[in-house]
Amino acid sequence: MTEQRFDQLRLEQVSRRFGEKTVLDTLNLTITGGEFVALLGPSGCGKSTALNCLAGLLPLTQGSIWLDDQRVDTLPPERRGFGMVFQNYALFPHLTVRGNVGFGLQMRRVGRVESHRRVDEALRLVQLTDYADRLPGQLSGGQQQRVAIARAIVIEPRLVLMDEPLSNLDAALRLDMRTEIRRLHQSLGLTTVYVTHDQEEALSLADRLVVLREGVVQQVGTPQQLYGSPANAYVAGFMGYRNLLSMTVTAGVGASVTASGHGVELTGLAVGDLSPGPAIVAIRPDDILVGEPPAGPSGNRIEVSVEVTEYHGREISVQARLPHGQALQLRTDVPVERGEVVPVWIPTEQVLVFPDSQAAGSEQADRLEVVV
Ligand code: ADP
Ligand code: MG
C-alpha cells in the first residue's frame, strides 16, 4: 500500500523527563519494517509518553529516533508520515465517516479523485463501505474505532501508532476488533507500535513485546520467549504468573533451588543470579494441580486451605491459603469446597525462582501481586 517502506526504526537512548521525573529512561529499541511491536506495562509506566515521542507530539529530552538513516525526532508530526489511533476515537462529530477518513488526505492536498479512491479502499479494509455517509454519532463504539483505524491507514503511513485502541470497547467487541487489527496487519504489513496494559492483547497481536516498568525496558522478545522465559518477576507477573511469593532461598543445586516461607518449602528453577536470601517464587494458577502427586515427575506436595471458589464452566478458580496465611491462586477441574484442606502438587519445572531485586521487605510481594 505504501511506497515509503523502511528497513529499521531505531530509538537510540531515548529519554523523556517531566520536571524532575524521568518517565522514559534511555530507551533503546530497533523495530524491523513490517513488524508489529507491543509496548506492555501497567498504567503510568510511560507507554503513551513513548508513543507520543515517536509521533512527534512530545519532544525528547535526550536521544534520537531514526528511520534507516533519516533522523525523524527533529521533524514535526505531519512530516513523519505516521498514522495514529487513540483510545478515544477523536472523530469529528459533524463530518461523515467519509469526511473523517478523508480529512488527512485533504490536509495533504491529495486530489479529489485519488482521495475518493483511497477512502473507498480504506473503508473496504475496515468493512465500513456501507456506512460512508453516516455521522460518527450514528455508529457503535466498535464502528467508530474502525473509522479511526481507516483514518490512520488511509494516509498510507510508514508507521502506525496505536495507544490502547480497544480499551473503551466492551469485552466481546474487544475480541472482534483484536482479530480485525491482526487481519489488517497481516494483509497490509504496516509497521505497527501498539501500546497496551493487557498482556493477552499484547501476546495475541504482536510479533514482539517490549515490557516497560517505570520507563525502563524489562525484556524484549517474541510472545513465546516472554511467556516461556520471563526475565524477572515483574515480567512473570505480566505473563500469567499470578502467584508471586516473597520467600527465602535456602539451598540450591545447579538450576534447581529450594525456597522457604509462608509455612512451606518449594523447589523450583532458578532464573538469573540467585544466591541464598530473599527471592520471588512465581507460579501460574493452572500449574497447581489439586490432588496427590502423580508418579514420576519431581515436584512439590503441599497442603492448602480453600477460601474462595469461582465457577468458570469447565474449571473453577480458587483462592487458597498457605499454612501461614499467604494467598495462593489456582485453577482446577477438581471440585473443592470452601473450608476444605486439600493436597496440591506443583511440578518443579513450573516454579520459577527470581532474585528479589527490591531486596526483602515483606510488603514487596504484596506490591508485586497488585501489578498482576
Ligand atoms: P501510560 O501510558 O503507561 O499509562 P504515561 O506515559 O501516560 O503512562 O505517563 C507516565 C508518567 O508520566 C505518569 O506518571 C504520568 O503522570 C507522567 N506524565 C505524563 N504526561 C505528563 C505531563 N505532560 N506532565 C507531567 N507528567 C506527565
Ligand atoms: Mg497511556
Model description:
The protein is of the alpha+beta class and 372 residues long. It folds into two domains: 8-228, Rossmann fold, CATH 3.40.50; 241-357, Nucleic acid-binding proteins (OB fold (Dihydrolipoamide Acetyltransferase, E2P), Beta Barrel). The protein is built from ten helices and 20 strands. The protein has helices spanning 47-55, 77-80, 97-107, 112-125, 141-154, 171-188, 199-205, 223-228, 233-238, 363-371, and strands spanning 8-18, 21-32, 36-40, 62-67, 70-71, 82-85, 159-163, 192-196, 208-213, 216-221, 243-253, 256-261, 264-270, 277-283, 289-290, 299-312, 315-321, 327-332, 341-347, 352-355. Bound molecules: adenosine-5'-diphosphate and magnesium ion. Magnesium ion is lined by residues 47-48, 163.
